[in-house]
Amino acid sequence: MGSHDNHQVTKNHHLFQAMGHAFDGIVAMLKEERNMRFHVLAAMLAVIVGWYLRISTTDWLWILLVIFLVFAAEFLNTVTEAVTDLLSNHHYDINVKKAKDVAAGGVLLAALFAVAVGLIIFLPRFYALIIR
């Protein structure tokens, strides 16, 4: 490693350094991952609708749980894709395909759970608004 290479290769020395790297990861996800931007828009819509409908604290906990579950699944999916691409040198490998498919399946399951929770919480309230 030359003196001109100032990329960190050791452990973080303090909490703020670790938080800075975490923030960099979040920014990278938002800039580089189209699906993450879609998940953020869906989350914003759920929060706006929840606020408009004045949902209960318990409902807010469910909504926030599924929002962050989907976000975490998308982050792990991106990590899986990056690491498997690196290890396979961007060449096709059946095990890389399996890892990516399973990680994507995890995101899909989390997203379907989020949709189910959203329907359970929001549909009765929309129905009540319509039949008034």
Account of the 3D structure:
- This protein has helices at 15-32, 34-53, 57-87, 94-131.
- The protein is globular.
- The protein has 132 residues and is mainly alpha-helical.
- α2 packs antiparallel against α3 and α3 (57-87) packs antiparallel against α4 (94-131).
- The longest helix is centred in the C-terminal third of the chain and has 38 residues, at 94-131.
- The chain has 4 helices and no strands.
**Pairing-aware structural class of the strands and helices?**
mainly alpha
Mean pLDDT: 93
Order of helices and strands: HHHH
Which parts are unreliable, with pLDDT below 50 for 5 consecutive residues or more? none
Oligomeric state of this protein:
single chain
Number of strands: 0
Estimate what percentage of residues fall within beta strands. under 5%
Number of helices: 4
Q: What is the molecular shape?
A: globular
